[in-house]
């Protein structure tokens, strides 16, 4: 293939950036751009944003027409800082999106307000955006992307993962400031892209304005080996109006309903050296008495892990979406009961099942209710009969420390559950997501493959699989690494398999003993019958035989 022109036709933007040197963009069969591949991809993305929004006009022109240009800060903004920022005025060619919110100016600085030109791992980077808002805009999302010199997206984040997350903006000008820590990343040149979106889904929303490659940053060596590509979180987000009304909470989040299961905030130290060690336990599950099948479920290793996770993280509020027969739910309850924790465990289920796990109906609820009455009959343990989307009204934002997502296993259902319940997760909260192994056959495995690329995580990939995700802070992820949780997970897997095999062997032995008992009883009845016949036929032509019952020791 040397010295031969290769033509590569694709919608894979990453491949175009990485593989090709020159690219054409076609629109309805016509060439609308020709040039180097990176510029072609940027042009394609900007054009796609305009087309997807049904608008065929310049974003910059739209924003300018809707708003007058003001550049002075409002009374509630630091005027001196505003003036000292090294503002970059953006060109219309750098912008794309719907245009109801327009990014006019950008400043990328270090803490001393010096322009962030050369950066290294650990540097705190501030990105200030001067926005023009043409109309009231709800559910505003702020985000950033870092790309390497080839245009490959290296890392990024948006504000959906933050506690305050989504806001609504009134018409006028606003200053947005986001901060992130420069990651341990390969030395080289990188460009920063910033964006404003509108919606509630971190992956699918209306792009209001993207400002492409607004500044180039040169990363110097972090002094240690770098492995792979990862997600780097925003650490702070501030929004203030320019002479207008303050940014308002997004509709539906201003006054969340009073939570019925809210626990008081316990004292917690951020110092990992004071964190209790991870203890590997050998729990006895009281739920197995009424439902022995739980002991041979595909989640045997998972529930032992969940039991010890509760002891390690000591969550205030645990919520289970999809109780079914209670395998995971009762593992949480048992951990709270055994350690006498003040935690609440709330199980949410419709008790109807779904198309994947079957419509199990009343028998599942009856078994769970009997177990509750027998072993977990205090106000720390609650069953809540509701659909998952309806039950969100019972919880405050940022209130759930440990959330278990289960029950519905289509891609859209799991994605909806994750997106709907993420605002309810507390800072440094943990999400457990079942059925994420490809062997499960569920589409939740596809969602897990996508979402785990954006957040720190651990995972079980045996049987049906369990994902452990840290989408709102890395405290427990770092604590888990310090305790060797990845290695411990392998231990839970092996022990779970061994316990299941031993339990099944015990069941087989019980069955064999039962068979032996039945044979012995049949033998005794047969000998009695033969004895009766011999008494009637004294010639002795019949001879009785029997089975010798050996002891368990033999």
Query: Which structural class matches the secondary elements?
Result: alpha+beta
Characterize the overall form.
elongated
Q: How helical, in percent, are the residues?
A: 25-40%
Q: What's the N-to-C terminus distance?
A: 76 Å
Parts with pLDDT < 50 across at least 5 consecutive residues: 52-76, 251-272
Strand portion, in percent?
Answer: 25-35%
Q: On the 0-100 scale, what is the average pLDDT?
A: 78
Number of helices, where a helix is a run of at least 4 consecutive DSSP H or I residues: 13
Tally of DSSP β-strands: 22
Characterize the biggest β-sheet.
8 strands, mixed
Oligomer: single chain
From the alpha carbons, calculate the radius of gyration and give it in angstroms. Answer: 31 Å
List the main descriptive attributes of the protein structure presented here.
554 residues; alpha+beta; eight-stranded mixed β-sheet; seven-stranded mixed β-sheet; elongated
Description:
30% of the residues lie in helices and 26% in strands. By secondary structure, the protein is of the alpha+beta class. A hairpin with a 5-residue loop joins β21 (457-460) and β22 (466-469). The radius of gyration is 31 Å and the shape is elongated.
Q: What's this model, at a glance?
A:
This protein is of the alpha+beta class. 30% of the residues lie in helices and 26% in strands. Helix 6 (300-313) crosses helix 13 and helix 10 crosses helix 11 (444-451).
């Amino acid at each position: 293939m040397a010295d031969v022109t290769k033509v590569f036709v694709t919608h894979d933007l990453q491949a175009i950036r990485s593989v090709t040197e020159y690219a054409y963009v076609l629109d309805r069969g016509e060439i609308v751009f020709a040039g180097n591949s990176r510029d072609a991809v940027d042009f394609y993305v900007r054009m796609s944003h305009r087309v997807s929004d049904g608008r065929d006009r310049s974003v910059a022109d739209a924003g300018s027409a809707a708003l007058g240009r003001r550049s002075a800060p409002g009374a509630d903004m630091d005027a001196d800082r505003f003036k000292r920022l090294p503002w970059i005025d953006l060109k219309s060619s750098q912008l794309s999106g719907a245009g109801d919110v327009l990014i006019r100016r950008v400043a990328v600085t270090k803490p001393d307000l010096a322009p962030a030109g050369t950066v290294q791992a650990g540097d705190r980077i501030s990105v200030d955006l001067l926005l023009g808002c043409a109309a009231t805009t709800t559910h505003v999302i702020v985000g950033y992307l870092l790309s390497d010199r080839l245009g490959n997206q290296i890392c990024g984040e948006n504000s959906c993962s933050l506690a305050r997350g989504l806001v609504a903006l009134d018409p006028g000008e606003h200053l947005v400031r986001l901060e992130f820590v420069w990651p341990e990343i390969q030395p080289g040149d990188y460009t920063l892209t910033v964006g404003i979106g509108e919606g509630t889904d971190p992956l699918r929303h209306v792009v209001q304005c993207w400002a492409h490659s607004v500044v180039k940053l040169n990363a110097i060596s972090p002094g240690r080996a770098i492995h792979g590509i990862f997600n780097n979180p925003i650490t702070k987000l501030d929004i203030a109006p320019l002479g207008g009304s303050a940014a308002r909470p997004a509709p539906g989040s201003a006054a969340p309903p009073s939570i019925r299961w809210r626990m008081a905030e316990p004292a917690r130290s951020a110092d990992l050296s004071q964190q209790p060690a991870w203890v590997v336990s050998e729990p006895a599950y009281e739920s197995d008495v009424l439902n022995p099948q739980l002991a041979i479920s595909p989640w045997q290793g998972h529930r032992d892990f969940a039991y010890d996770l509760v002891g390690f993280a000591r969550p205030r509020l645990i919520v289970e979406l999809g109780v079914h027969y209670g395998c995971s739910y009762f593992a949480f309850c048992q951990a709270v009961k055994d350690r006498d924790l003040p935690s609440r465990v709330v199980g949410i289920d419709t008790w109807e099942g779904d198309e994947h796990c079957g419509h199990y109906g009343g028998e599942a609820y009856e078994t769970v209710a009997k177990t509750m009455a027998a072993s977990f009959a205090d106000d720390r343990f609650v069953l809540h009969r509701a659909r998952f989307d309806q039950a969100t009204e019972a919880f405050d934002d940022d209130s759930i420390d440990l959330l278990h997502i289960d029950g519905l296993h289509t891609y859209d259902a799991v994605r909806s559950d994750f997106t709907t319940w993420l605002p309810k997760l507390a800072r440094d909260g943990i999400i457990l997501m079942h059925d994420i192994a490809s062997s499960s056959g569920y589409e939740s495995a596809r969602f897990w493959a996508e979402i785990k690329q954006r957040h720190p995580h651990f995972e079980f990939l045996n049987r049906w699989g369990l994902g452990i995700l840290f989408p709102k802070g890395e405290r427990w992820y770092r604590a888990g690494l310090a305790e060797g949780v990845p290695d411990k997970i392998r231990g839970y897997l092996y022990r779970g398999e061994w316990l299941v095999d031993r339990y099944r062997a015990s069941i087989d032995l019980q069955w064999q003993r039962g068979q032996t008992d039945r044979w012995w009883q049949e033998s005794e009845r047969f000998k009695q019958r033969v004895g009766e016949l011999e008494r009637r036929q004294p010639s002795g032509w019949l001879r009785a035989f029997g089975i010798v019952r050996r002891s368990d020791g033999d």
